[in-house]
Design brief:
Porin; elongated; 5-stranded antiparallel beta sheet; 9% helix
Amino acid sequence: MRCRFTLLLIISSLQFTFSQVNYFIAPKLGIANPLSSSFQSDNEFFTINALNISPTAGLSLGFITSKGLCFNGGVHVGHTSGIVFKYGNAKRDLSEARSVTGINTIQSNIQVQKSLIRGNWFKSKKREKLSNIKQVNIQNEFFYLFNFNVKALGGFSYNHLVKHSEEDEVRKIFYGTMKYTVANRNSFSLLTGFVCEFNSYNKRNFQLTVWYSQGLSTVLRANVKYKLLNADYSANVTSRGSFFCVELGYPIYFYKKEKQI
């Protein structure tokens, strides 16, 4: 709780260094794919990581500055810390199995976003005529039905793994068993990615965010025992709580503040 309060305090203090800020709150829904970080196995057909997505949700609070920077902090929830592996090879007549154990993780993060590319789609002849009638100077974005803004994203997060009943319990998987333990319930991660914001003449409609969270320490360890062609094998797998995520957000702008000079 102290870490989350500290993150929000950092975000709120940054606003005083800019002459104009526009505040927003943004609910988000998305999908994430957890990733394992390393493994040791006595079988060449054992490997980590596979496509397996699960839903996520988030809420962020932040502001955009007059210089085009965006600062926000928020909470992200989902089964994003996980042990992911597969073994076997269907092309070589071996039974192929995949196993994913996603642990519910609460991630409190701070992000900084910087605009890279701005563009416009579908020019409107109707808006061109309207501007000629009024004979006023209008921003170029007005003449297009859709505008977009691609931003680079960077940040860090504090993560907490929620306790689960299957911790330290042996569970059955395809042709074998697995037991995982929590090595570190609280950890930190670095964030990077891109945000594509779509709008119509300064009316921001929604954001598509593709980002990656890289854990800085091991949070999960698992021991796997399995059979292939009537032979027994074993493997040890670790995870840093890293994951890929794709999110759709809807920023709601509720207050604009200008510093008095």
